Each structure stands twice: as structure tokens, then as C-alpha cells.
Structure prediction request, 461 residues.
Amino acid sequence: MVSTEREFPASALPELDHRLPQRRTLVTDLPGPRSQALTVRRKAVVAAGVGSSLPIYAADADGGVLLDVDGNSLIDLGSGIAVTGVGASHPKVVAALAEQAAHFTHTCFMVTPYEGYVRVAEQLCALTPGEFDKRTVLFNSGAEAVENAVKVARLATGRPAVVAFDHAYHGRTNLTMALTAKSMPYKANFGPFAPEIYRMPMSYPYRDAADLTGEQAARRAISQIETQIGADSLAALIIEPIQGEGGFIVPAPGFLPTLLHWAREHGVVFIADEVQTGFARTGAWFATEHEQLEPDLVTMAKGIAGGMPLAAVTGRADLLDRVHAGGLGGTYGGNPVACAAALATLEVMRELDLPARARAIESIAVPLLRDLAAETGVIGDVRGRGAMLAIELVRPGTSTPDPLLTKAVAAEAFSRGVLLLTCGTYGNVIRLLPPLVIGADLLTDGIGVLAAVLRDLTSRP
Ligand code: PLZ
Prediction:
């Protein structure tokens, strides 16, 4: 039996002050009438290609709750896909961006620079792993950061090829679609894709042979790189240190260090895509820190600015400074309001020690998820780090993915007031990405709902 009343040190995840009551309260069926009316209006004007996980419309959000337009208060275990680590309306972030907006919303850093951009760059150069001399350039989205990291790597090495991995997700632009592994919905019928992108096998401990070590998995990829591409033609390896959309796959220990070591030996740029894993989410500032890695370039976005659109590439000065002036940029990259939000977000993250809160979330959630796995028999794997956790759902007694159950669990949890996201190459992973400011009560209530739903959907009459 899963006990959601399991003892844990409450001090590990102290309750914080929030503007909105931190509880799950449903006052209508979901979606309520106002959300339904908005869906009708939306269908008439918003392109069908933009999907939404939930059929409710947001009215307010704070801490671990999201309020919809009908007055329902849902537990947010998604953070707008790992963005709102500090919550969606942290007062310090709100005040900082309002203050900046009252002075100037935009000048374009490429026309008239401002201090906020420089301060964000200073902080990212200091915060990202590696003691070497670094530089930073700011953009608007994760995909844009990835595109530019690849541009820098190609220019700096003079080589064309780029390696990405199975289950990878790097974005939806043309180059990043080519880097992303999964066809539906990200790539199907959107080709032709950018050339010179090669895909290599990942380390996926749950689905790899049980005795395959991280180092062996890396050697498997390296041997294919050497035979199919040749190190001399390879500009960069790009990899998410924990894969996000692909299923929260944590590679076996040794996989990433072996790849990084090989890349260094061969002058290949190692790009860590920390867009989803970054900014305290995994219990460290960056997921590469768990194996003491020092990537050449790091791509960042999502959690960086408390919900404002901002992204960055930070890395070795000798790579980034190779690019001619004017070669990198964009109208809005490093927008002053987004920079002000980022500076406040980083301050809040330090003040509240959000890496420690992410670890506390893990210590509360993982035992509950493990108990649930033992009880229901449909959870093949419980994995993740910090507040980036997942369960992989399979048919009982097998490792066959169960995407239908996964969808049903997310839908039923939603109808009980808990926002859960799914992911995974096989569509069978439920991921937990709570805001890092969530309190222990709300978190355990949310996981309790997940447990109840899974029990209800798997117990046979
Ligand atoms: N790299 C590792 O996770 C974005 C996108 C979901 P953008 N992930 C969520 C969807 O369906 O579009 C992501 C990521 C990693 C790059 C990106 C891209 O970041 O800010 O969405 O462009």
C-alpha cells in the first residue's frame, strides 16, 4: 500500500509565503464553462497545429498552484514545461521586470547596449561549470540557443558534422528539428531537414542490456561516430545531460564523461543542452555538475528568467570569441525586461537555495513513486534527479510501453485537479516538474492523486 503520509523531514521543504492559497480546489467539472467558451473562440482563430495539454485557460498562478478562468485551483506539476522554478509570479521577479519596463522595454542590444545584458552574462559565465575563461550570448528561446551553439561550433572548428542522440529533443526550428529524434509530432512532414546531422545510440539504462555500463554505451556511440563520420569532420556533439522530452532518461554513470573526454581528445565541441535541466531543476545549478563535467558550450533557457523569454549560450571564450562581430544576435535577444527578470530569478534561486529544494522534492517524491511501482506493477522505472522525476509505464510484467495508460493517467489526474505532463519516445512516461517553490503538502497531495488514479485505472474489478 502506498502511504502518502510517509514520514519525511518537513524542514527539508519548508512552506514559503504565497499570494494564492496553496490548495487543490475544484468548483466546476473540468473544463468549466468559461474555459469551454474560450476553446470555441480559440478554434476559430488559433492554428490547429498548436496543441495544448489541458483544455482549461489560465487566470492566475503562484507557487505550486494554477487558477483557471472558472475559479478552479489545480496543483501544477509541470511548471509550464520546467520554466517556472521560482513560481509563475514571484513578487521579486514581477517587481524587477515592472521596474525595468517602466524605464525602457527595448533598445536592441545590437543598437544601444544596456547593463542588464552584461550583468546576466557575468552571472552565467560565473555560474556555468568550468574554471576557464567564458563568454555569453543571449537569445529568446531554447531552440535559438541550440542553433547558435551549432553555428559557433562549426565556425570555430571549420567542420560540418554534428552528432545528436536517440531520444534527443532540441527544438522545432529547421536545424533543431533535424537534431530532435522523434518524428511525430515534431518533424513529420516538415522536411527536408538540415544536412550533416548524425544520430547516435543513447545510454538508456532501463532499456539497455543490464550489464551495459555507461562507458560501454559511450564507446558504442564513439565507434559509430568514427566509422560513419570521422572525428575530423565532426564539429560538435550535442546532448541533454538528462533527456527531457525523450523521457527523462538519465544516462548510465560514465556515459557523459567518456563522450566528453573523447570530444576533447579530437577537438570536437561538447555542447550540453541544459535548456530543460538547468537552473536548479535537478538539484544542482546544472545537471552536468552531477558528473563534474565542464562542457565547452552550454545552452540554457526555460528556468532562467522566471517565465520571461530568455535563452543563452555560455562557454569557452576561445570558441565564442572566434565569431566575427555581427555574426551572432537578433532583435530581441537579451531583451532588457527579460534580463531584469533573469537577474531577479537568479537572486531568488540563491536566496531560497532552490537546488536544495529540488533535492528535497526528490527525497519526498521518489520513495512514494517506488512504493507505487511495487504496488501497481505497471511502473517499469522510476528515475530522474531533483525535481525532474518520471515514471515509465509498461504492461505488467513486461517492458512494453503503455502509452494509452499514460494518457489516461494524465487525463484522470487532470480531472481531479493535478496538472501532469507526459513525455517519452514511446509516449509512456509521466514526468513530475513541480515549481521548486512548491510546499511539501501540495506536493504530496499531487503525488497522492497520481497514486490514486494509477490504482483506480489498474485494479481489476
Ligand atoms: N532543448 C532540452 O527541452 C524545449 C518543448 C516542448 P524552446 N522543451 C519543451 C514542445 O513541445 O515544444 C527544449 C528542451 C531542450 C531545447 C528546447 C527548445 O526550447 O524554448 O522551446 O525553443
Summary: The domain at 10-76+353-459 is CATH 3.90.1150.10 (Aspartate Aminotransferase, domain 1). The chain has 13 helices and 15 strands.
